[in-house]
């Protein structure tokens, strides 16, 4: 029984990583800084936390690669309003999903 729980937990982590979850990587920071030079790892971590907490309240978390960078701009604006995010929170989510999408 315990092995099943460990395996299930491992599979959840793999699935979560595939949806853009997991740690903010150095590659993500580099990708974000190509678009927004002042972006910090901490901002991406806040975006990740907001993305995982707010977005999954209403639906499954989309993969950052499911949309283009331009599509994410429109999506985060619309969904940020629906989720009650302020401009800073919406921007952090945008930077996080874009960085996760563009990271190598």
Protein architecture, described:
With 104 residues, the protein is mainly alpha-helical. 69% of the residues lie in helices and 0% in strands. The longest helix is centred in the N-terminal third of the chain and has 17 residues, at 2-18. The protein starts with a helix and ends with a helix. Residues 1-20 have low confidence and may be disordered.
**Cα-atom radius of gyration:** 14 Å
The tally of beta strands, per DSSP, is 0
User: Biggest sheet, open or closed, and with what strands and sense?
Assistant: none
> Helix and strand string, N-terminal first?
HHHHH
Share of residues in helices: 55-70%
How many domains is the backbone divided into?
A: 1
Give the overall pLDDT as a whole number: 85
The stretches of 5 or more residues where confidence is low (pLDDT under 50) are: 1-20
What does the overall shape look like? Answer: globular
* Secondary-structure content class: mainly alpha
Percent strand equals under 5%
Question: Cα distance, first to last residue?
Answer: 37 Å
Number of helices: 5
């Amino acid at each position: 029984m315990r092995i099943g729980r460990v395996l299930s937990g491992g599979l959840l982590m793999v699935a979560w990583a595939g949806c853009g979850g997991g740690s903010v990587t150095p590659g993500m920071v580099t990708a974000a800084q190509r678009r927004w030079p002042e972006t910090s790892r901490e901002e991406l971590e806040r975006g990740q936390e907001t993305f995982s907490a707010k977005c999954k309240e209403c639906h499954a978390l989309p993969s950052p690669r499911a949309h283009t960078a331009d599509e994410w701009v429109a999506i985060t604006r619309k969904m940020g309003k629906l989720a009650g995010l302020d401009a800073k929170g919406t921007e952090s989510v945008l930077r996080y999903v874009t960085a996760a999408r563009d990271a190598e």
